[in-house]
Specification:
The chain has 224 residues and is α/β, with parallel strands linked by helices. It folds into two domains: 3-115, 3-Layer(aba) Sandwich (Rossmann fold); 129-222, Orthogonal Bundle (Arc Repressor Mutant, subunit A). The protein is 40% helix and 20% strand. The protein is built from eight helices and eleven strands. The strands form three sheets. Strands 2-1-3-4-5 form a five-stranded parallel β-sheet, with helices on both faces. Strand 8 and strand 9 form a beta hairpin. Helix 2 packs parallel to helix 3 (60-70), helix 6 (154-165) crosses helix 7 and helix 6 crosses helix 8 (189-202).
């Protein structure tokens, strides 16, 4: 069971979603505005946040950015907007996943379980993975660049670890979706946007990456 925060201004949708998720075994708190949701998360952090984009006042995009400034909580967008621009913008703001309304609650619950499994302490000691000035510590859940900690989300960390564990090998977008997001079928834009965000954090020149490189038509690989 996960503690969830649902930020949705439509009372009918918010209530039906909360009731359906509670039936799935989750504990749900609700907020009708971004401001109320941010206060609720600061006071009593949830295991995951579900947020609509079209909120009154502060919109969902800014809500996600504000959450990401201090919190690595998994964030799933739930929105009627299915345009590619909106999906990419939400992921670039810091969301981990994007679900288009109407929501299939069973699928959403499965995604919530997956997103909350993405970072777990290693079962046995795992040595640090070193790529020049980049250091990945799977056991501690840390990433360091030139010895300084790098703030990454849970999904970014899982993606980086997956690439690091297969250093020098190309992993396709579909393989990464299956291994990181645990989706047999999913939107490959999730991978592309998260790779882009990781490059901004771990590459000295994200436009010409040294470590996290694209193999055109094939996928991505991490180089030492």
């Amino acid at each position: 069971m996960a503690a969830l925060l649902v930020i949705e201004d439509d009372d009918r949708i918010r209530l039906s979603l909360a009731l359906a998720l509670e039936d799935e075994g989750h504990a749900v708190r609700e907020a009708s505005t971004a401001e109320d949701g941010l206060i609720a998360q600061r006071k009593d952090p949830a295991d995951a946040v579900l947020v609509d984009l079209m909120l009154p006042g502060v919109d969902g995009f800014e809500c996600i950015r504000e959450l990401r400034r201090t919190d690595d909580v998994p964030i799933i967008v739930i929105s009627a907007r299915s345009d590619t621009h909106d999906i990419v913008a939400a992921l670039e703001a810091g969301a981990d996943d994007y679900v288009v309304k109407p929501v299939a609650v069973k699928e959403l619950s499965a995604r919530l379980r997956a997103v909350n499994r993405r970072v777990r302490p290693a079962a046995s000691p795992v040595p640090a993975l070193v790529f020049g000035e980049l250091e990945i510590r799977p056991e501690a859940g840390e990433v360091r660049l030139h010895g300084e900690p790098v703030a990454v989300t849970r999904t970014e960390f899982r993606l980086l670890c997956e690439l690091a564990e297969h250093a020098g090998r190309v992993l396709s977008r579909q393989q990464l979706l299956e291994r990181v997001w645990e989706y047999s079928i999913g939107d490959e834009r999730l991978v592309d946007v998260h790779v882009g965000r990781l490059r901004q954090k771990i590459e000295e020149n994200p436009a010409a990456p040294r470590h996290l490189v694209t193999m055109r038509g094939l996928g991505y690989k991490l180089l030492r």
